[in-house]
Amino acid sequence: LLNTMPMWEKGERTIKQPVFIGDVADGVLNALMDPDAPGKVYEAIGPHQYYLCDLVDYFYRVMRWRNFRRTYMFPTFWAKVAAMDRLPNRPPLSPDRIEREFITDRPTGCPTLEDLGVKNLTSIEKRAFYDLKPFRANAYYDENLGELAEASPPPKYVPA
Predict the structure, then answer these.
(1) What is each CA distance from 109 to 44, 67, 122, in whole angstroms?
(2) Could you tell me the pTM of the whole model?
(3) Which one, 15, 23, 35, 115, has least CB within 10 Å?
């Protein structure tokens, strides 16, 4: 179906902690310069946690796509995934990839990017507009200032 995104449990049980690639690059460079870093495991996680459903809804609001909805993974979706998994080279969808996409990000207590000296981690709200601009509906429409409302940010997940 058009304008639908099949997601495990509609994304309402998966918690993600997105990280900006520039922050990861800074962390890698800092790790290369740090004599204590070799042999240590660092977690590349962003500053905030979100439910996956809230992130996906936010991304579609930023892209100004109307009539979008998340759905459950129906048997027809799994049939498509099984067919794509048989494609040569790198299939766009596979059962393994879907399983990885819907695993909750759980910090393990290892050092993070902040421990590598990356200060002021970039939040998703600061980057989404720029990263998703090419995918916006009517991306090249010159709107008047304030003509179209900005997308409200996703609520942050607060562990109980």
Answers:
(1) 12, 40, 20
(2) 0.85
(3) 35
